[in-house]
Amino acid sequence: MRVLAYDTSLSAPGVALIQVKAGKASIIDCSHVTTTTEHSHAVRSEIVYAWSTLFLRKHAKKGFDVIIREDFQGRSSVQNFPVFSAWAAVDRSLENFGLAFTVKPISQSQMKLKTVGSGKATKEEIEEAVREITGYTGEFTKNDESDACAIGLAYLIREGVIKR
């Protein structure tokens, strides 16, 4: 089983490809891109689009069984607009490959609860849990990468594909 998971934001989105074989999850690849507020939302959205498209070009040939993202619920349009712009950019890049999100998004608190055991886990605790669950020893160059991994793992745990 191959799970593509996005931690989508406009400032530093992350993506992870998780594979499960014989009940064991492993990280195939993960990535992030960092944008700057010196650019408009439109430019930053295009950067997210290009980054996602390049990641998909690298991995789409083998297909994905599940494509999921973290849910987001901002309190204002100022919070929502950047995230939804990034969501649209990723949606467009998926569409280029005939793909779309296949399951409902998972909330940040559920991701933390499923992977760490606490809905209020820190970024460090999330990374530690991801490493524990997958045995990953590579570098996470930004916590958005380990967060993306945790989103995929939370889905797998929730569905009973793997155990915590």
Can you walk me through this structure?
The protein is of the alpha+beta class and 164 residues long. Helix content is 46%, strand content 16%. The chain has helices at residues 41-59, 77-96, 108-115, 123-134, 143-158, and strands at residues 2-7, 14-21, 24-32, 66-69. It has a four-stranded mixed beta sheet with strand order 3-2-1-4. The longest helix has 20 residues, at 77-96.
Which structural traits does this protein have?
164 residues, alpha+beta, Nucleotidyltransferase, domain 5, 5 helices, 4 strands
Topology overview:
Blueprint: E1 2-7, E2 14-21, E3 24-32, H1 41-59, E4 66-69, H2 77-96, H3 108-115, H4 123-134, H5 143-158
Parallel strand pairs: 1-4
Antiparallel strand pairs: 1-2, 2-3
Helix pairs in contact: 1-2, 3-5, 4-5
E-strand count: 4
**CA-CA gap between termini:** 17 Å
Looking at the structure, the CATH topology is Nucleotidyltransferase, domain 5
Can you name the CATH architecture? 2-Layer Sandwich
Residues in helix, %: 40-55%
Number of domains: 1
The radius of gyration over CA amounts to 15 Å
Overall pLDDT score: 96
Q: What is the string of SSEs from the N terminus onward?
A: EEEHEHHHH
Q: In which order are the strands of the major sheet placed?
A: 3-2-1-4
| Quaternary assembly | single chain
